[in-house]
C-alpha cells in the first residue's frame, strides 16, 4: 500500500506533455464566438467568456494531473478511483462545452438565462476542480502525514464519490435545461428544430 501511495504521489506531483486518447479534446473557441453572437450585452458576454476561460483553466490543470498519472507505473493506473476521479473533470467539461455550445444558439433561451446557465456550469466544474486539488493534496508527500494508508485511501474513495455526484449532476442539469427548451418549442410548434439541435432526447427528463 505504501508503494502505491508513493507512486501516486510521484504521478500527481510531476507533469508530462504526453497526450492521452482518453482525455476529451476541448475547443472553446467556437463556444466563445457563439456567446458573442447570441448575447447582445457586451458586459454579459464578457462575463460568460471569462467564466468559460476559468473553466477551461480548471480543465487544463486536471489534464496535467491526468497526464502525469498515466506516465508512471501500471500499478498506479490500477488505482482506478484515482484515475476515474481525474477523468471525470474531462467529462464534466465536455458536457458543459458541448451542451452550452448548443444552448447559446437556441432562441428559446434569453441572454439572462444563458448567463445563469453558464454560471451553473462554471460552479459545477469549479467544485470538480477543487476535488482534484483535494485529491492531489491527500496523496502528495508532505500533506496528511499523520494519516494512515487506509485513511488516505478512504479519502480517495470519498473524493471519487463526490466527483461522481458532480458528474451526474452536470448531466442532470444539462438534460433539465434542454427540457425547458423543448417545452417552449412545443408551445411554438417548433419541437423538431430543438430535437435536431440536441439530438435524441433523454426521455427521463423530457
Helix and strand arrangement:
Elements: H1 2-13, H2 29-38, H3 42-70, H4 74-77, H5 80-103, H6 111-139, H7 149-187, H8 191-198
Helix pairs in contact: 1-3, 2-5, 3-5, 3-6, 5-6, 5-7, 6-7, 7-8
List segments where confidence is low: pLDDT < 50 over at least 5 consecutive residues.
Answer: 4-21
- Total domain modules: 1
User: What structural class is derived from the secondary structure elements?
Assistant: mainly alpha
Question: Got a strand count?
Answer: 0
Could you please describe the fold and organization of this structure?
The relative contact order is 0.14. The radius of gyration is 19 Å and the shape is elongated. Helix 5 packs antiparallel against helix 6, helix 5 runs parallel beside helix 7 and helix 7 runs antiparallel to helix 8. The chain contains eight helices and no strands. It is mainly alpha-helical. The chain has one domain.
Short description:
With 206 residues, the chain is mostly helical.
Record keyword descriptors for this entry.
mainly alpha, 206 residues, 8 helices, elongated
